[in-house]
Amino acid sequence: MTAPDATSAAHDAAGPLLASAASATMPAPATEPAILLERVSRWYGNVVAVNDISFALAPGITGLLGPNGAGKTTLLHMLAGLLRPSSGRIRVAGQSAWRNPDVYRSIGLVPEREAVHSFLTGREFATLAARLQQLPDPAAAAARVIRTVDLEAAADRQIGTYSKGMRQRAKIAAALVHDPAILLLDEPFNGMDPRQRLHMMDLLRSMAAAGRTILFSSHILEEVERLADGVLVIVAGRLAAAGDFREIRRLMTDRPHTFLVRSSDDRRLAAAFMAEPAVFGTELRENRLTVRVAEFAGFTRAVARVARDASVTLYEVAPTDDSLESVFAYLVSRR
Amino acid sequence: MTTFATIAGVTMRALLGRRRTLLMVLLAGTPVLLGLLVRANDAELDNIGPTIDGFVVRIVLPVVALVFGTAALGSELDDGTAIHILTKPIGRSTIVAAKIAVAGTLTAGLVVPSTVVAGFLLGGFDADNVGVTFAFALANLVGSFLYVAIFLVLSVVTSRGLIIGLAYSLIWEGLLSGLLPGTQIFSVREYIGGIAEALAPGAVADSIIGAGGFLYAAFALLIAVVLGSVRLATYEIRGTD
To answer: pTM for the whole thing?
Structure first.
């Protein structure tokens, strides 16, 4: 599935993604989506950080996936009204986000930067957020979110003494204190241990089930896979794919792969591999065998059998292009 | 508790909780030290005006205001903590006004008592000297809030607010206003001198602004709050990704 294909997948899926880049001309939903971007770009001088992105999000969890430097934070900051789009239109909770402080009644933002007033305790930090949201009972609201993020034991310690994961939970508590309809999280699981990560994922799932719209960024495929219903893949500022995560994941897995193989007889093994339908090329260079395969799973099932039948001993089989960046590059090249 | 008071409270804790406060206390204490030295020599000044003007108004007040004014909001914008206040449904003018109120109060809280104590130590308790001392105390009170407001706006406009504020104080007020008297119309120092002169004639004999200092100061403060609010409303946080 390419990015344009992902558009149709997005429409078919029951996930939160309503439309993607190629479908900006589709008829708008009857009610305005929680988050709407129309041909949004943002550049700094000659550098384009976000390039002509359109999508709409309804309640549910959407992962914003992309390598470091892809433009995820810029996009989230524009959604949170902290950056003005250079072109295009952004609507959040039915309002413009730029120069509109009232929109923060509907938005909770968890920024990536760790900067927090370190002299405040976790409880004071949450209470500060509740007071600035002008809630009727700030102390009770703060106590509720401190409990929600499982920070009660450390709530009365200064944030300056917190671990990275605890700071992250304190920021999430402050973002949740007014029970926002829309939650924007920038790399929210950074620094959390596995137990905290699972707890936070459960929390976000329950919020999504209660009708909240949640958009979180990550550069870790597995995080998005475990949590998100829909996914937006952003590469070099462009929307590379959008839609149902399973479709995109299948695309990522089934793309052509390259393996490096070391064996007791690389030449004989190369000849044997060429008889396999999953393999479409081999190369022997500097005592290294490179195998290009059409389908990841098919090759991994066949490799041991082929080596055994050819009476060759396998020393090493390693994929060479399994990084997220290579996956993204492939998705972009398909557009 | 209002949002103004909430922001003021957290700003006060942020400004007081650091080593710079101790340094500012020491700086504000230097006029008192000067007064004690004069007293230790059994001396007394006939006219304390030039000494207070030259030392407190020209050096101590702008430096203390520069430090607190740029730290109140500019430091939070630089280190990223401001995002937790900016992403709340609060008018930007409330944020700017609260920050100016706190930084101005801290500056005045150090400089005004220092002015009063130093004035009495330097000139004694005769009626003329008491008048001049309180005239400078009031003028420095006004100047504290005005300097802070200007430096705070600078810190929102540019990340080099501290350097530009220092240049304003040293070059514009210190050098240009002497060479080009017309530039005094944009000098906080001259407003302070004008207010002191209006309250106690002879305090700053060469003031060309006089009682107009009140008006200029009020107008400049208003402009600073409006400019700071507008600039903060369009402030953009640069993404790291």
So the answer is: 0.83
